[in-house]
């Protein structure tokens, strides 16, 4: 079946649904009956509904705080969630383990058992599919803020069914953003279809008066991704979602480290997403933003990590992100303890609260960078739309195939993997090698000249070395991987 | 030219370190065979047999390393790779654990060297060189 | 003897010196012989000379990191200094205990003994006068970066003699900034005279080719001090110091919390200090700046404190302060352990290093605030100069007496204590009650209207309540003490 | 109207909390006599005698509280203030110490109540009220 950007009919939806629910034992739970699920979701109060809470924060110009967390043993996961709520999390996550993300429910089951036996976590998250609706509801019921599934699952259809029916009012991901950085062999056509289904499920509930939130995963590989590339993917996923009836979308972005570029990115993310949604005919979608604290390699020292976290929070707050995803002082080591997670939350929330009445002032430099990001997005979007002959779904497939859009360091073979990013002399992320990226010559010239400035300054050559040095730089305390730093 | 097989084991997709390891070992003059991310134990072993490798350098970042690495040494022996040197590194267990203990667990599984988080590949080049020079002095069974 | 701003003659200087050195036993140390001291200081290498290191950082646009620390037992103090250097401090302090600050050397002596007996610190700093030159040299010799005395001593003449002769290349303080916030009954005429002496001592060394650094204490009471007031005092102290021959001056400022106001303050601090030094005929003084991380009440939670510290560091770095004084996660509790101090250093240094290639962009809002601070300084300086009939020393005395210049919350009876600060609706520090402050009507109108905006927004009244709420606010996680927060 | 003497003891100049305490207790209707910062034990005692105060509220922020407060109770008794209620609060010792121990040390010195860092004056108004109501039930010697 060819892929295109059309709303799944009710028949198609229900037909796929049947298959999905029978793909694993927890899919046969009667609680997955749609009428029952609607009934349950109708009782979710506003303060536990992600769409409502984010929309309100967006209107008030506040920046909410959400950690990442998930652990395999149910009882402990519930404790963890309560603890993080207590610590000040405005929104809760549940990070799903990596076997579930690859639909390897059998291995996840083993992981649960082993973890219980050894009484230590052998899975890196909460295997929600294995636990099923009833147990997921226990998590939802134990807490007083909205909860969201956060994962990296190309085929999250069963997961989406289970978590929404359990009262989890948001699902992170998308056919592109949960494939390209998270898979190697899964075709983009497939993953986009899978996510059309996830979005359609949200649309189904929307038709019954229940607004659930969807959040494309902004940071992608978290490694030197230029804002225009991740923004373009977020915009495409927002359009795909809106097409299936989603009305509350949170577009995301991972901190790049140059403060002005980050704030320009946050502002253009909202502006351009709304602009393209309007262009595609979606005028009643609530768009909010999420800022991911530094997504690349972290420093090892815990105080330094706290410095980085709080500096990220400063940028998120001044840039008026609707929410930020917090990191922890253990980031470079491993999954954090709940206490370490708490420290990331508390520091971030303190900064956000302190800066709530302030904004990053408008400046020429900011406008220049916003303009730059905007023309890059337009260039990419034009090429994508052209490639799909007007259909954004087939357009993005073609664009990935030919490298019109290309994500640095992505593991997927459906990503061309030809572009190389590097920082310029002020630490802005620019592009060194374009591959077939859908940038016009003027934009390419701009990028080249900015990197040239740095190369001249450091008296070194244009090469992959720049990229490697920049990848290591932050974990070693610099933003730019200067030659003399070695 | 010595051949080293590298890759990221299990359901793990962390690709950045893997690309840097490939780049670094290649510029050191090794023949690097990269089985990439999401690699199974069989992927590593087949690549090692085909390329006549002396070393397998397993990365695991996402935390499931302990489950994913079990039995690798035994499978190597079964496949006739009785001299192969096995390294593992990255963030090989879930969370912050006492590294001495973690190391013991992986040594017991048959790895020759086990590296803690944040060990940059650049910092172990000497050890790799030395171990390759001594390749063959030990058989593992 | 009447006070005026004139360089002490060599005779006067040596006459006072004799008295000073005989005021306490450690003053009679032969190492205090000026020729010997000059010889010793000549051997201080550049990298251990505060003036050199700051000047270099200033030229490179880098922001250095300096903690506060001092403990009464010599051996432990040396360990502490080495530890903090190891932790990454670019510059070292030695905080002097409060008895020494009040010249109560007998009580300090008891404090040393008691501390040694109980093996825990009973003094809040290092009693350098009691220890004398030889021991202070041990501290200097144990480390590899510049070291400075930091205190709060109205009469620091003996202290200055001892620390400089021991190779400590900088002394914090000033006749105003180490009196008004640090004393109750000591006359300003006296303390300015005492500090003319301290400056003259530095001038003496300068004449012999040794550049030492002097640093007026910028934050004053650390509590809602409007930038123009602390800047004006810093400028006056810079002029007083330059008059005695000081050539390396670091003017300081305590973070107020509104990012734009802080950056505007940092920029104008350097600009206006240089401008007035030039006007007064001092064209060869190196002016650098120091940013004090939040000087008011801190949050109790350590992660929140780390958030505040790192947010402060972000502002210092983007504002291009030459150095920043770091706080610690124990700030609200008590003198930090060395490990807690290390955490403040590491987080701050990480942020400074990450942002070293970036600046806060120029913007209208920034320029507007810079302009505001500048006209306020000019208004205050005009009035001070007028009050002194051209002599800045007698001018500042008159200005304090009449309240032309007035520091909020200062304990000194030589400060009128009539002004009340409060935040406006964006968190800028403004003035609610002017007393006799030397502002023209236009400036007063501006302040009133800005606070009015907040008062209207919160539907409350213009009163001291605003100030009280603002004092508590930061320690409770807000910048502005909003009415509804209670 | 009950009279309370407040002040900051020793060589301590932290004036902000002191001004807020004065403001807060005054708005609660107490007669507040503020001896200000840098106050000696004698300053407190003389003010208490002159104003017929029932309570002395000592602040110490800068860390030397332990040295500065020794003997205050004895001097009060000598001066005939045998019923006076003594409070101490602020940051009364150097550094972060176990508060239980610190409390014991100050109780042993004769203080009736000892408060940990960050105790806002607003949060102890009830206790002050209650203790003043019970004034006189105890004499201290
Ligand atoms: C970027 C990143 C991502 C990106 C990866 C993009 C991609 N496809 O590559 C994204 C966002 C997709 C991601 C996803 C996930 N991640 Co992730 N990720 C990171 C992060 C921040 C940086 C990794 C990185 O690229 N570093 C830079 C490279 C150059 O360094 P490196 O990978 O460490 O490799 C170097 C060394 O380790 C060493 N090395 C590596 N292998 C070996 C082997 C040997 C023998 C030797 C000697 C040396 C060696 O040499 C390499 C080069 O110098 C780390 C935390 C950190 N380090 O700060 C977390 C981290 C690895 N991720 C983690 C987790 C849990 C996940 C997720 C499960 C959850 C989530 N956050 O969504 C998913 C897992 C997906 C999956 N199935 O694998 C955890 C692992 C936890 C644990 N082990 O306890 C970490 C540690 C973060 C944390 N503290 O929670 N992640
Ligand atoms: C502002 C400040 C200063 C200003 C003070 C200006 C002035 N003249 O008032 C300046 C910069 C001058 C200063 C100087 C010094 N300070 Co100071 N300062 C602070 C700071 C940051 C805030 C204090 C404050 O104003 N808080 C706001 C007010 C409203 O709160 P408060 O003072 O705590 O008072 C409230 C409560 O404590 C309570 N309370 C107070 N007393 C009592 C009594 C009773 C009975 C009760 C029930 C309640 C109560 O009610 C008050 C109102 O709600 C604190 C740390 C902190 N808290 O974050 C350090 C702090 C108090 N300072 C400290 C020190 C060491 C010094 C110096 C020695 C060194 C230095 N930094 O230069 C000098 C000392 C000078 C001297 N001789 O006293 C230490 C004390 C350490 C310790 N006890 O172990 C602290 C804790 C910082 C630290 N962690 O090192 N400081």
Task: Give your account of this protein's structure.
The complex is a heterotetramer, with 2 copies of chain A (486 residues) and 2 copies of chain B (141 residues). Chain A is of the alpha/beta class. Chain A has 2 domains: 10-355, Alpha-Beta Barrel (TIM Barrel), CATH 3.20.20.240; 418-486, Glutamate mutase, C-terminal domain, CATH 3.90.970.10. Chain A is 50% helix and 9% strand. Chain A has helices at residues 10-21, 34-42, 50-60, 74-87, 98-101, 105-118, 128-142, 157-165, 188-207, 227-243, 259-279, 302-318, 338-354, 364-387, 392-402, 441-458, 464-473, and strands spanning 64-66, 92-95, 147-150, 170-172, 213-215, 248-254, 286-292, 323-325, 420-423, 429-433. In chain A, strand 4, helix 9 (188-207) and strand 5 form a beta-alpha-beta unit. In chain A, helix 8 (157-165) runs parallel beside helix 9 (188-207). The longest helix of chain A is centred in the C-terminal third of the chain and has 24 residues, at 364-387. In chain A, 65% of the residues are buried. The mean pLDDT of chain A is 97. Chain B has 141 residues and is α/β, with parallel strands linked by helices. Chain B has one domain: Rossmann fold, CATH 3.40.50. Helix content of chain B is 38%, strand content 17%. Chain B has a 5-stranded parallel beta sheet, sandwiched between helices. Chain B is globular and about 35 Å long. Chain B starts with a strand and ends in an 8-residue tail after the last helix. The model of chain B has no long low-confidence stretch (mean pLDDT 94). Chains in contact: A-B, A-C, C-D. The structure holds cobalamin (2 copies). One cobalamin sits between chains D (11-17, 20-21, 57, 59, 61-63, 87-91, 94-95, 115, 119-121, 124) and C (68, 95, 98, 101, 124, 152, 181-182, 219, 221-223, 295-298, 330-332, 334-335, 409, 411, 471).
